[in-house]
TrEMBL record:
Residue ranges of every copy of the PAS domain listed in the record: 102-136
PROSITE patterns the record matches: PAS
Keyword Flavoprotein: yes
Keywords: Chromophore, Flavoprotein, FMN
Gene3D superfamilies: PAS domain
UniProt name for this protein: Related to vivid PAS protein VVD
Cited NCBIfam families: sensory_box
Recorded GO CC terms: nucleus
The organism of origin for this protein: Phialocephala subalpina
Amino acid sequence: MNSEYQLQAQRLEELRRAVAAQNAQNSSSGSTIVDVGPPRKLARKKYIVESREDPNHPLKDPLIYPGVYAPSGIDMMSILVRVYNRPNQQIHIGNVDSAVALVLADAEQPDLPVIYCSEPFETLTGYSSAEIMGRNCRFLQYPPGGEAYQNQQVNESNAESRKDLREKIGSGEEARVRLLNYRKDGSIFANLLTIIPIVWDEGQVKKKYIVGFQADEGRTFL
């Protein structure tokens, strides 16, 4: 994340906290500006916030980073801020920004379901957000037809990386592995996967998530 993104991230975090404070002040009147809680399963690109005082005239998000920052739900900028500000960093992420392919998985749910994916992730894999949500990213290790159509050589190649991932996730550690993955069209690419556990702390709410950075080995940026 370069200095420009870091400055913008800081400003957006300040705005988020200011909005949270104003929401608290307005709660007695029944109006809410935005929800600044931890990530939720929301449809991406829907940044319209309803006003209880005038439901026929929704307010639009005044910020200029659609897909990167949204004051409600999940946003790219807040994820990257938490990744860069995480304590006890074990893996150097490098200079990544909103062009990065990433997913956010709920570490408190069984099988780590994806609750957010970036547009570059959709471009990299060919899968839409609707096809990805609620699934574990391991489905990328299988052809579009599913596990029954798995290539044995691909399966064996991924075995050691899968073992490493299970161990690191189980111990709450960061990890970087190389996996052979399938795009939606059935083509295979070498995915350099980096997983970073983060804690989403907003006031009294603390939740655990795992950020998965994906990179085509032929176009490495990490």
